[in-house]
Amino acid sequence: MDVLRFRVVDKVAETKDSYSFFLKFLGEGDINYISGQYLPVKIPHEEGILFRSYSLSSSPNIDDLFRITVKREKGGKGSNWLCDNLMVDDVLESLSPAGDFFPKVWDTNFVFFAGGSGITPIFSIIKTNLLAHNSKIRLFYANSDKNSVIFSEELFQLQKDFPDRLSIDLWLDEENGIPTDSAFFEYIDKVNESQYFLCGPSAFMESVEKCLEKAAVPKSDIAIESFVGVLPDKISNGSSSSDKDITVRVLLNGEKKDIFCSENDFILAEMLRNGMNVPNSCGVGNCGSCICNLLHGEVILESNAVLDSSDEEDGWILACRSRPRSKYIEVSFDE
Ligand SMILES: Cc1cc2nc3c(=O)[nH]c(=O)nc-3n(C[C@H](O)[C@H](O)[C@H](O)COP(=O)(O)OP(=O)(O)OC[C@H]3O[C@@H](n4cnc5c(N)ncnc54)[C@H](O)[C@@H]3O)c2cc1C
Ligand code: FES
Predict the structure, then answer these.
(1) Which end of the chain is more exposed for a tag (fewer CB within 10 A), N or C?
(2) Which CATH number do you get for residue 283?
(3) Which one of 38, 226, 281, 316 would you pick to mutate in the ligand 2 pocket, going by the greatest count of ligand atoms within 8 A of its CB?
(4) pLDDT, tens only, 18-58
């Protein structure tokens, strides 16, 4: 598995509870990424290594440095660790850039709906678009109050630089309450010639999605990035205990534990059900948090945005998307 190393070149407070980290790649050659992708970042938390995904707010077409922007999550381990502990000159490790929240075509018009830290991948796509393509762009950007608007200055500078191509509507809950459907409808292109990109809190994205559905926007014109993982209950088929005739031996933090699964179960869900404190975040194969090494047996890895074929040949799997395919399996999170 390729672990990338970056030097933190700058750390900038964007708002009272978010920081941008400007990162210089320390390896040889270039790392390619597309605006809208994220870095699965490795966090050396005192309770054990965590992986968390952070969208790249830099643009590969313009910015020399990589940039991620992290907003503190109340009670969150990874985001608070990064904001409190990651300093200029430190080295940050990550897996390769991943994700498919990016325009598949660029020569069209775009409507972006961003809420809070959901602006990060959208900011990158907007910059790339304005500076390397020719689209017209509308951004609806919702925040609770004016002090929590990430990239405010940079966005309004872009609007000044590209007045005919970028329009921004900043929605502040403190002034207007939460965004209404009629505000969203204003943003929906009546002739269906735009691509829509949504990233923000779940309730915000659900409301926008409903409005797009009502306006008969084809699903193929809508891209959605969710920052929130899926609960373990939702990632398992929940087989009955009599079906659980497969043994999974888990090596974690120097200890061994056997759990029992059926071939329909995702192994991460069963580990969590058995009270194991296994690293995990998205639950859907996107973030890399649950990477482990398959030491014995076979699994089927159902979806995966993080590992490449050589990682899989080396035995790396994602526990959240792996179902057993042999009667005895051994995985290690300690490799
Ligand atoms: C593709 C993708 C891109 C992302 N990009 C960004 C980005 O650009 N910027 C950004 O800021 N974030 C981004 N995120 C979110 C980020 O990955 C983290 O999920 C976020 O920072 C929270 O992580 P944490 O470790 O701080 O919180 P966690 O420790 O994972 O906790 C998350 C929440 O769950 C609660 N919680 C934790 N454990 C329990 C428990 N046992 N019981 C009940 N509640 C619990 C916590 O209190 C907290 O509210 C992205 C996520 C994804 C999937
Ligand atoms: S929990 Fe995100 S990849 Fe498995």
Answers:
(1) C
(2) 3.10.20.30
(3) 281
(4) 999 999 999 888 899 999 999 988 888 887 777 788 999 99
Distance CA 157, CA 34 (A): 23
Residue 99 resides in a domain: no
Q: Is any atom of ligand 2 closer than 6 Å to the C-beta of 289?
A: yes
Who lines ligand 1 at CB under 6 A?
A: 38, 52-55, 69-71, 73-80, 99, 117, 120, 225, 227, 281-282, 286-287
**Torsional class of 315: left (φ above 0), alpha (ψ -120 to 50), beta (otherwise):** left
For residue 97 and ligand 2, the question of a CB distance below 6 A is answered with no
Instruction: Tell the residue nearest (CA) to atom 3 of ligand 2.
Output: 285
User: Could you report the per-residue pLDDT of 135-194, keeping only the tens digit for each?
Assistant: 999 999 999 999 999 999 999 999 999 999 999 999 999 999 999 999 999 888 776 689
| CB contact set of 114 (below 8 Å; sequence gap of 6+) | 122, 139, 140, 141, 142, 198, 199, 200
CATH number at residue 15: 2.40.30.10
